[in-house]
Design a protein that fits this description.
heterodimer; A: 256 residues; alpha/beta; Rossmann fold; globular; B: 415 residues; alpha+beta; FAD/NAD(P)-binding domain; 21 strands; 35% helix
Chain lengths: 256, 415
């Protein structure tokens, strides 16, 4: 596969690189600004890897278990999910609407010795261009978009038939207001104030409904629950009250 | 999942192995085997030549706890060890004083009191080393570099590089320091150590004796330090005899007859006539704790993290628990696609092992200070104390379980 990022990298000037190095260090500083994401990451990865392994019948203990799978991470940021997916052998495209994240993510992937195709683009533009993936990761994005149904339709269109869509977001209820807005943004300062607009949070049933309208078949949903004693996150069958993650499929083509 | 295909996680990555290990003693090779089993490629770096005749070590034997035995079985080592392993059916702890015989408050542990079978097995160092060497030779994905020394190590964003005295440079994602209580890996990573000597050294030897030991292990708390008599296959026992260092040095330096003459009064005659078998060793004792288990792309294992007093026979078992926990944490991280050398992954290992280790270090340190003393008041107090522990069954069972390595959150390899 040709490497489009190599050409792009050569156009970056040295001052920019210094700035991106600082930003890359920030994205990947597990004790810094993105600490909450780093804490959540193992839990998200457990869900993602488990769902992909089940859907595509892969053994996670094998060498490069995701080899041959084409995977898109929407809202890739510094590449916190892209890198593990690439390390597991997937062919990874990371897309982010924030242009400045792209060179940051590229730089870190290079340091990690991983080949990842990072692009400054949107799900809608990629769907328009006719891109097709086995897996689309859509993590903590849907609560930030203007039109969830249009966005999820683009996610559907980006999947090959039988493809897997993993989507996580925040539930909308009194508890999520206390935890995500007051707790995470105002008390713990884990996230900058204004990161989330609680009114745009989506309940699991609303998300299932939106996904069905976008042509996706929901197959699984789990809560992601923070345990303050172990200072870690875990997956929960029942507690979807704040953070939760879902799996849905683009149905195989039906011949009429 | 059994026996996943070993191999690099990402073939495109330019590194020699996923994991580099320093130290070819016991923990290093076991860690190499456990990581290879989890699918990692490993380079084991040892300062000693592969066929080294460690004659001091050759006189040693280890009390393998139940969890450790299960782990060795999982790693395919136990089948080779079992024929020469002696079951420990009972442990008798006695406060003794030379020439006076055992005191009355004798502490008695019997494996019949816990449901998990024997309290442990005695395995001789020579057998363990032979089994490890054979398994390493057969393991896929394990490279041995010996005899070489590490002269420099450098952690970077993409991995860790070590420079060998041969000039060769090796790269990996993580450097695991299994290089003992004077761990160069820890020093180079800027990890400081705390601890103190006990002014004691352990004399180790193997004795053959006239009468059968019936699988009973004895620990006598003598004024100079504890004396352990641990059953080996046949009418043989392994002796770990702690003494004040200057006396220990004199005892070891003497000819066999003088050595036995010094040992006999402490050993007693409950096993009949004794004679020396093979070499004897001398090991200075001290507590040596690393201030941290991990640093950037570095994890410490076993004595490199926590050199304990061998009073509870827990050194090797604690090391194997480190190995099992680290192998599990790294194996899980690998399945998630995480970079196994990064802070969040290593912190999981450190958090898991920190508590266990602190407890064990505090306990053995306290026990040593309490027992290595001829103050008559302390002696009376500990006689009463041991009598009391004996009288309270739940407390005694708890101590047996701890000694058998059955407490705490056990790593999968030990379950």
């Amino acid at each position: 596969m040709p490497s489009p990022d190599r050409a792009a990298r050569s156009t970056i000037d040295p001052d920019e690189v210094a700035k991106f190095e600082a930003m890359s260090a920030e994205w990947w500083d597990t004790e810094g600004k993105f600490k909450p994401l780093h804490m959540l990451n193992p839990c998200r990865l457990d869900y993602i890897t488990g769902q992909i392994a089940a859907q595509f019948d892969r053994d996670l203990g094998a060498q490069a278990p995701f080899a041959g799978l084409r995977l898109l991470d929407i809202g890739c940021g510094g590449g916190l999910l892209c890198e593990p997916m690439a390390r597991l052998g997937a062919t990874v495209v990371g897309a982010d609407a924030a242009e400045r994240n792209i060179p940051v993510a590229r730089l870190h992937a290079e340091q990690s010795g991983l080949e990842i195709d990072y692009r400054h683009t949107t799900a809608e533009a990629m769907a328009e261009a006719g891109e097709a993936f086995d897996v689309v990761l859509n993590m903590e994005v849907v609560e930030h978009v203007a039109s969830p149904i249009d966005y999820l339709t683009a996610c559907h269109d980006l999947l090959k038939p039988g493809g897997l869509h993993i989507c996580s977001t925040l539930n909308r209820n009194a508890k999520s207001y206390v935890m995500a807005i007051i707790g995470a943004e105002q008390v713990m300062r884990w996230l900058p104030k204004g990161t989330h607009d609680w009114n745009k949070f989506i309940t699991p049933d609303e998300l299932y409904d939106l996904m069905r309208r976008a042509g996706l078949t929901p197959v699984d949903r789990k809560g992601m629950v923070f345990n303050p004693l172990g200072w870690s996150w875990r997956l929960s069958e029942r507690d979807l009250s704040v953070n939760y993650v879902t799996a849905s499929l683009r149905p195989e083509r039906v011949t009429l | 999942m059994d026996n996943p295909a070993p191999g690099p996680i990402v073939s495109a990555m330019n590194r020699d192995s996923d994991i580099l290990i320093t130290g070819g003693g016991l923990n290093g090779p076991v860690l190499a085997l456990a990581l290879a089993r989890a699918g990692f490629t490993v380079t084991l770096i040892d300062a000693a030549p592969p066929e080294a005749d460690a004659s001091a070590a050759a006189s040693r034997a280890y009390a393998i706890a139940a969890g450790s035995r299960r782990m060795l079985a999982r790693l395919g080592l136990w089948a080779a060890l079992a024929p020469d392993a002696q079951e420990m059916a009972e442990i008798k702890v006695t406060d003794g004083r030379a020439g006076e015989g055992p005191a009355r408050g004798m502490l008695h542990f019997d494996s019949a009191e816990i449901e998990n079978g024997p309290m442990g097995h005695m395995v001789e160092d020579r057998h363990l080393r032979a089994a490890l060497a054979e398994a390493l030779g057969a393991a896929e994905g394990v490279t041995l570099k010996a005899p070489v020394r590490v002269v420099a190590q450098e952690a970077g964003p993409g991995g860790v590089t070590v420079t060998l005295d041969s000039g060769e440079r090796l790269t990996g994602l993580l450097l695991a320091g299994c290089d003992g209580r004077q761990s160069g890996t820890a020093t180079r990573a800027g990890i400081r150590r705390a601890g103190h000597g006990y002014g004691q050294s352990a004399i180790t030897c193997t004795v053959a004796h006239e009468l059968p030991h019936k699988g009973v292990a004895h620990q006598f708390f003598m004024p100079g330090g504890p004396l352990a008599i641990l059953p080996l296959k046949g009418n043989r026992s392994s002796v770990v005899w702690s003494e004040r260092t200057e006396r220990a040095e004199k005892i070891v330096a003497g000819p066999d007859e003088a050595f036995l003459a010094a040992l006999r009064p402490a050993f007693g005659n409950f096993l009949g006539q004794i004679r020396l078998e093979g070499a004897r060793g001398l090991h200075p004792l001290g507590l040596s704790l690393a201030e941290r288990f991990v640093a950037a792309r570095v994890a410490l294992v076993g004595d490199a993290a926590h050199g304990l007093h061998p009073v509870a026979g827990q050194g090797l078992n604690a090391g194997l628990r480190d190995v099992a926990a680290l192998a599990q944490v790294l194996g899980e991280a690998r399945r998630r696609g995480e970079d196994v050398g990064t802070g969040p992954v290593l912190e999981r290992y450190a958090r898991w092992r920190r508590f266990d280790t602190a407890t064990l270090a505090a306990t053995t340190d306290f026990t040593t200070r309490l027992f290595s003393n001829d103050n008559p008041l302390l002696r009376l107090a500990r006689d009463a104390g041991m009598g009391a522990i004996n009288a309270v069954a739940p407390l005694r069972r708890a101590m047996i379980r701890e000694a058998a390595g059955l407490t705490g959150e056990l790593p999968e390899l030990m379950r």
